[in-house]
């Protein structure tokens, strides 16, 4: 079970529930917390929680149990710890306020997740 596989499962689960602006950051050289962050957002609290539920289900099916989570009840910012991967699910305006990509992205490296996201055609 590789880090790449964990990231793929989390990203695909979020994408299936219409998460927006999904970003993955490699932070293994700058953090003892985890090897990677997945950061995404949704327009409503209800969708934030639905995305969290989907990620938890798909990660468990793949053998990656949720170690700890915070914020699910409020639905503004759900933090999900899967060990090597920490998923941050924000309500859109909350994400803008905290701007984790700026905080961690300066020294972290973007991970290419393009192939795991389904492009919608209109």
TrEMBL record:
Protein name in the entry: Ribosomal silencing factor RsfS
InterPro entries in the cross-refs: Iojap/RsfS/C7orf30, NT_sf
GO terms for cellular component: cytoplasm
Superkingdom of source: Bacteria
Functional note: Functions as a ribosomal silencing factor. Interacts with ribosomal protein uL14 (rplN), blocking formation of intersubunit bridge B8. Prevents association of the 30S and 50S ribosomal subunits and the formation of functional ribosomes, thus repressing translation.
Keywords: Cytoplasm, Repressor, Translation regulation
SUPFAM superfamilies with a match to the protein in the record: Nucleotidyltransferase
Single GO MF annotation: ribosomal large subunit binding
One GO BP: cytosolic ribosome assembly
Family: Belongs to the Iojap/RsfS family.
Native organism: Weissella soli
Predominant subcellular localization, coarse grouping: cytoplasm
Oligomer status and interactors: Interacts with ribosomal protein uL14 (rplN).
Subcellular locations according to the entry: Cytoplasm
């Amino acid at each position: 079970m590789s880090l790449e596989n964990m990231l793929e499962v989390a990203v695909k689960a979020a994408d299936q529930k219409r998460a927006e602006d999904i970003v993955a950051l490699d932070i293994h050289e700058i953090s003892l917390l985890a090897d990677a962050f997945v950061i995404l957002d949704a327009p409503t609290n209800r969708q934030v929680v639905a995305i969290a539920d989907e990620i938890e289900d798909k990660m468990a099916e793949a053998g990656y149990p949720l170690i700890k989570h915070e914020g699910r009840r409020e639905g503004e910012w759900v933090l999900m710890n899967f060990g090597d991967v920490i998923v941050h699910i924000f309500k859109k305006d909350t994400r803008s306020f905290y701007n984790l990509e700026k905080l961690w992205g300066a020294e972290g490296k973007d991970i290419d997740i393009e192939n795991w996201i389904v492009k919608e055609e209109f």
